[in-house]
Amino acid sequence: MTDHSGVGFLGMANADTDPSHRPSSARIYDALLGGNHNFAADREAAKHLLAAIPRAGEMARANRAFLNRAVQFLLDRGVRQFLDIGSGIPTVGNVHEIAQRCVPDARVVYVDIDPVAVAHSNDILKDNPLALAVQADMRFPEAILEHPGVRELLDPAEPIGLLLVAMLHFVPDEDAFPAAERLRAALPPGSYVVVSHGLSDTPADAAIDAVTALYRRTDVSAAHGRSRDEILRFFGDAVLVPPGLVWVHEWPDGGDGDPHGTAVVAAVGRIPAAS
Ligand SMILES: C[S@@+](CC[C@H](N)C(=O)[O-])C[C@H]1O[C@@H](n2cnc3c(N)ncnc32)[C@H](O)[C@@H]1O
Q1: Which of 38, 184, 216, 256 has the largest CB neighbor count within 10 A?
Q2: 114 CB under 6 A from ligand 1?
Q3: Per-residue pLDDT tens for 36-76?
Q4: What distance in Å separates the CA atoms of residue 1 and residue 165, rounded to the nearest whole number?
């Protein structure tokens, strides 16, 4: 039977679905970051990715650093709860660490399609009653919004930080735009949407065939950049905070990275009060 709910359950893997045999985007990213939550197949895929896009490791680190700064920005504006979709492997400096160091009762729900990422997350979070990880697919936003863990931890009356960081480029257009719209619509006024995304028409596009072929062997069906206008569509009516959509290292105050050869842009938008 095919499960169309978008929510998976741990412990269902069998010999055919053994995650150690098939690279996953979460674990390739972990390998790029120098983490140790990955298998030989993931490290091999990361090697191929670096051959195709030599600055992929640098981009991954700059992206993680952006995520940290964006979470701090939201905390400084009073956001106390986070829904992090496509959260990946929880290495040092993850959302709950940053948030709960600053505000001990901040709440975080991580969502990822990769069962290994979710299992690692829940292992790390087992003594943390204010954070949990859910295995689900962004393409099925209703399953995320209705998940008992999401409903228990996140108060729909209070602003939420919706994080879609370095994950939308793994989701095809026909799913990504409607799913982002549905998730945004569920956010109360004063919430924030945080997006980072691979940009099209960059030097990394020269490697698009190799990258597409590589990710086709993983758990995600697409891996492609979008134009600035397409990326801005993910914000809907949310009002971008300065400096708008910029290279990921330029989002304040990420230092002086060199944009040449990078391909990831980022922005943060605020959901306005209902008129
Ligand atoms: C490059 S990692 C980004 C991790 C983290 N957001 C960060 O920026 O540090 C992309 C993550 O998106 C997840 N992902 C891809 N497609 C997804 C989907 N349809 N639903 C949920 N997660 C997805 C992958 O499993 C992976 O963990």
Answers
A1: 38
A2: yes
A3: 889 999 999 999 999 988 889 999 999 999 999 999 999 99
A4: 32
